[in-house]
Design a protein that fits this description.
Blueprint (H helix, E strand, L loop, with lengths): L8 H5 L9 E5 L3 H12 L3 E5 L30 H13 L2 E3 L4 E5 L8 E5 L6 E3 L5 H10 L4 E3 L3 E7 L5 E8 L1 H10 L7 H5 L2 E9 L1 E4 L3 H9 L5 H6 L2 H7 L4 E10 L9 E5 L3 E6 L10 E6 L1 H6 L5 H16 L6 E13 L9 E3 L4 E3 L9 H19 L1
Parallel strand pairs: 1-2, 1-11, 2-7, 4-13, 11-18
Antiparallel strand pairs: 3-6, 4-5, 8-9, 9-10, 12-15, 12-16, 13-14, 14-15, 17-18
Helix pairs in contact: 2-4, 2-12
Amino acid sequence: MFMRYSLSTAKLSTMNKKKKTNKVAVVGAGLSGLVCAQALADKGFEVVVVDKGRQPGGRLASRERDPGFDYGAQYFTVSDLRFREVVDGWLEKGLVLPWNGRFAIAEQERVGEDYSLSPSSPRKQRYVGVPKMNAFALALSCELAKSATVLTQHRVTRLEIDSDSCYRILGEKPGDSSLEQVQSQGESQEGAESSQESALDCFGLNGFNYVVLNLPPLQVAALIATAGGALPAILQASKCFESVDQVELSPCFALMVQFAQPLALEFDGIKVSNSALAWVASDSSKPGRTGENWVLHASPEWSHLHLEDSLPDVSAALLTELGLLTRQDLPPVTFSKCHRWRYALAPNPLAVGSLLDSANKIGYCGDWCQGNNIEAAFLSGRHMAELIVRDAS
């Protein structure tokens, strides 16, 4: 059993004064968390990244098994010069390439009526990871592992204060026996999730002067609400948490589907409005991909209304809508898989970069702090690191 410590307001406000402020826990290995961790490690901080997923990247999600799909973020553009410098490096390494597809906008005046499609020309160059969208996140994680600790499949369930008045993070990870079972059976990571969840061990990590939460706002709130001792009331009373608590993330269903024959559609990516669909893309049209693979994203409104529907029902509904959009009988489906993103895009994102509660040494970052895209996630992680470096100096 883990030891638990309570903490007074005065003690929390003076925490870390006894020790050098150079050890940081980053909870969540999305792009913001990885960028923040790398920037801090470059400045000499001792950094530990903890993520519940099987691999880093968050919503930079790609299916690893064949057939492959990008079922999270679909592409990114560049506006900021700091991000441009990084993307140029990814281009040189072959981690990203331009996606020069054919794009369109589809609209319905009313739900159930025919769609009108019109070609669209992007104002900015679209880029994708190669060979999959998560390529640059995985590369960043591998580089980070040279100077920091990156722990995947570690679900953080509680924050506490340890005996040295620093943060302690507690959680669950796959037990050694379940990992051995997976390896002996030759299961892939994707197919082994249920096996690994059947045997969990607890973990506890101590001595963090700062904690960064790269999580959706609702998960931030839940983690803080169950923190040890006086932490919940203290952290919830801060202006930073008040800002976090105002942000909501809409859900999104992502359907990955492979057809037996090419889909008779002249566009590679379609932005859809006033529909169950929000986005339709030929994943195979991206550089380095093959097959007749398509990704369908449901609209936030439709996803919210059908959030607890069964995944087969969601898949059927989205395929029906695709048929209406394309005005054709769809070819036979050879593969289909639906993913439920409970936290996708923020209708009301902040524009602050990131948030640091300097009195209590806890920070919040993510694309929802800056906008709703990959560039925003990068800038938020960079901003979070800058705030911590300044605060610790």
